[in-house]
Amino acid sequence: MHANFHPALRRIVRLGLERYSTRPPAAEPVDQMIARVIAKISCPPRPVETTPPRLCGIFTHYRPSDFYSRGRFREMDIAHLVRTGKLGRGGSANVYLACDPQAGNFPVVLKTYHTGLLRYAKLEGRAFERLVAYDCPNVVDVYGYSIDPSGRVVLVMEYLVGENLEQRIARSGPLTILETVDRFIEFAMGLDQVHRAGLLHLDPKPANFFLTRRGGVVTDLSIARAINSQGVVHTGTSVYGTTYYTSPEMWRSPQEITRAADIYSWGHSLSEALTGKSLVERLGIPDNLWEVSSWHAHSPASLPALGTDPGLLTRSTGIVSSQELHLLDEIVQKATARSVRDRYQDFSQVIADLKQWRASVTR
User: Fold this and answer.
1) 203 flagged as catalytic
2) Mean pLDDT of all residues in the chain?
3) DSSP line for 79-117
């Protein structure tokens, strides 16, 4: 049996032994190795986030983490991966769902960059290379990359089970006020890790904030830029991000963007999540690029106070007091301050204030 033992099964056995055994694998006969590994993997597996079987086939009893580990960004052979559906199309890439038949049909996401936009793939790849050392559960994981036959870069990413915040609000309205704060603490923790890795995300928004069973997860670093030694990113004449959430300084020239730009976008996303209304709905301005960008760049007005939103007042009744709602509004207003000097400078400050507010309303 030893001579005819399939190489792939040998690898599975060795992976299993490395995971469960304290003895060197070479010290046991192969038959005994197989019996012991089968005994281990026959036990009910730990819960893992998986996609429905209708999308990725039937999962085997092998744990996906044996094949796809967090924090390991590397070049990968993806020829054997089977595409099972298209998840979406963005300005820089197409996104597909795929499964790995060699790893029990483990689901992954393939982000295939459009021809001529390979620089975005390189930026995102470098971003995740910087992040792998942190292994942050609040940032989507990227397992590796490949080059397809047409020369396009493909990133192999973690498949997140759930929906993004934009989809959630559109489907059934905003989360409860306390759940919103809990999730935005997690989004802030993810963005804080991005900053600690020496990067600016540059596009925090509800569509890039994912709700999963492990909590809030920040996705899409496709336009992330490295921070220089002065703590800024020089964007030249380019405006990065999504208009509804772009900071005032992003529209100015010369553009020296700091961490505070991500905090501004995060703050506008929090306001939208709490009220269930977009910026144009709350302000009553025309929904076009010129009007929205002009408001961000030139308007002296702040966001309307949370206490002026009738829907939020109704949902918060009996949950938070008017004073507690006012304190939460102060956090939102500081995060979205027009002047960089008046804004939070670091997500650690944001997290500390939100956690303090959350603890004060825990009953």
Assistant:
1) yes
2) 80
3) TT-EEEEEEEE-SSEEEEEEEEGGGTSEEEEEEEEPTT-
